[in-house]
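4.2 Preliminary Data

To establish feasibility before requesting continued support, the project team ran the inverse folding procedure on a target of 497 residues. The structure was first converted into the token representation described in Section 3, and no sequence information of any kind was made available to the design step. The complete token record follows.
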């Protein structure tokens, strides 16, 4: 079996055909070594048009649109089986492209496969609804695919994030054009190959990589695209939302975050310090739900900070495939530059850099985009570094004095994706959880994810939900049906007899 990652010029997928575009390609650099991985063919606006036409044709085919739910479920389960069979390949694609450590990449494949199984069960068991009649008729609500869905994904966790979209959109019976991030094209391409091999009809899933600024607009604005599902930064999300608004189509937006992680003095401080370390540094901080703002009650602030610093210093930063590696590089050299500029900016404004704030000294890592776990203190919650998403291994630590002060600071940010609370007082946990403006709240834990729970943000962290049963409804439109049981016409408000 030839695979994308084995080829020098990686092709993309339209209508079940593999397309090589040698005049337009992305040179892919391994962020851990600075070496070229491969060239990936990039799509043009004409390719986007061909991909959308192909998805439209496939989505309109009754054999796909009306496929019985249990048959569709079998297909999704076959995709999950193939993902697990090709787990090493998928994990390797992600590791080479965004530098995430091997263990995380493998776990993300298992997570992605589980998502396909979840939506297989969901589509097989979720029914239409009979609604209470208010006359002599049967009233029903049925759920139908949108048609062509544009799925646009970022680079930080391409396997899981693409699975969230593709599994639910296929379960719902749509056609899809997937535009993966330029930094991580082959995970999407390999998922496209797996879907084809599993028996998804050619054209149902098309995968076209390329620069978002060039082909993203063409995709979102294509007249046959009836829904957009976007995961990425807030500014691009805003632009997509504006285009979608003009077309009057739904845009589900999973955007950035600057999540508060809150530790009260009565908490299990050791467990909280473990969680605070994982919450920000896992994935080298490149996680939308990263607990990047650590609020600690003042009387235990020094104690907690010293525990988090100790844990962060002990993290094993290394090449992503090194045995025991816990942190890899940033996903690109540009991303590391951005992280450096944010930390330098804070330093100039008087912030204290408690640990990190530099590249690692290890000469084996000198060619990669590595950056040390960094903890910034001595800042106001209004400081730029505490307000803007960094998407790197940078934790902002801030003390708070009481619950009211804490909630005001925690909510004083444009984002509202995730949050964490550590306390032994269950009534306080409830109060704070309800007061936080966030789509997710973890209580005495952090980063517990379930395919069965809806995922998404408040405020500028997004709109709509993926995963959970709501996740499948996101990819369906609602139709109400009224079926008369009467021999005479008795509809309308005033004209019927
Ligand atoms: P990005 O917004 O730069 O890019 C995301 C995708 O959008 C890429 O495929 C890109 O090519 C494409 N794109 C760029 N311009 C476009 C345009 N004009 N039209 C259409 N598509 C366009 O984000 P990124 O740097 O790849 O990812 C990091 C961001 O993603 C962070 O802000 C992070 O918080 C966010 N993210 C959110 C979630 C979530 O579920 N809420 C999950 C992961 C990442």
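Position-by-position output of the design step:
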């Amino acid at each position: 079996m030839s695979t994308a990652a084995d080829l020098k010029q990686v092709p993309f997928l339209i209508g079940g055909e593999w397309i090589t575009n040698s005049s337009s390609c992305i040179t892919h650099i391994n962020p851990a070594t600075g070496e070229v991985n491969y060239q990936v063919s990039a799509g043009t606006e004409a390719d986007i048009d061909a991909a959308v036409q192909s998805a439209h044709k496939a989505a309109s085919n009754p054999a796909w649109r009306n496929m019985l739910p249990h048959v569709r479920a079998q297909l999704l389960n076959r995709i999950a089986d193939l993902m697990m069979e090709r787990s090493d390949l998928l994990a390797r694609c992600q590791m080479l492209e965004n530098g995430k450590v091997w263990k995380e990449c493998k776990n993300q494949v298992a997570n992605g496969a589980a998502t396909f199984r979840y939506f297989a069960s969901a589509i097989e068991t979720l029914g239409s609804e009979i609604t209470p009649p208010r006359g002599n008729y049967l009233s029903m609500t049925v759920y139908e695919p949108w048609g062509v869905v544009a799925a646009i994904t970022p680079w930080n966790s391409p396997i899981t994030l693409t699975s969230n979209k593709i599994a639910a959109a296929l379960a719902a019976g749509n056609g899809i054009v997937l535009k993966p991030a330029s930094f991580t094209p082959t995970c999407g391409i390999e998922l496209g190959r797996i879907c084809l091999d599993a028996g998804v009809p050619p054209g149902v899933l098309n995968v076209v990589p390329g620069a978002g600024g060039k082909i993203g607009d063409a995709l979102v604005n294509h007249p046959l695209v009836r829904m957009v599902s976007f995961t990425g930064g807030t500014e691009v999300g805003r632009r997509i939302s504006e285009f979608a608004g003009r077309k009057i189509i739904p845009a589900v937006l999973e955007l950035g975050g600057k999540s508060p992680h809150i530790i009260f003095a009565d908490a299990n401080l050791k467990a909280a310090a473990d969680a605070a370390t994982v919450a920000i540094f896992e994935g080298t901080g490149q996680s939308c739900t990263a607990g990047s703002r650590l609020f600690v009650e003042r009387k235990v602030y020094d104690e907690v900070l010293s525990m988090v610093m100790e844990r962060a210093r002990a993290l094993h930063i290394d090449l992503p495939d090194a045995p025991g590696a816990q942190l890899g590089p940033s996903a690109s050299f540009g991303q590391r530059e951005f992280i450096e500029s944010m930390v330098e900016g804070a330093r100039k404004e008087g912030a204290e850099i408690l640990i990190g704030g530099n590249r690692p000294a290890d000469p084996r890592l000198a060619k990669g985009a590595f950056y040390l776990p960094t903890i910034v203190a001595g800042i106001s919650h209004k400081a730029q570094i505490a307000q803007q998403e960094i998407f790197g291994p940078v934790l902002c630590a801030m003390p708070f004095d009481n619950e009211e002060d804490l909630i005001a600071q925690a909510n004083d940010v444009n984002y509202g994706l995730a949050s964490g609370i550590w306390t032994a007082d269950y009534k306080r946990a409830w109060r704070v959880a309800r007061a936080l403006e966030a789509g997710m709240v973890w209580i005495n834990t952090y980063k517990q994810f379930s395919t069965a729970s809806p995922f998404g943000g408040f405020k500028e962290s997004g709109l709509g939900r993926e995963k959970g049963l709501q996740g499948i409804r996101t990819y369906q439109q609602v139709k109400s049906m009224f079926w008369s049981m009467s021999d005479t016409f008795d509809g309308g408000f005033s004209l019927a007899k």
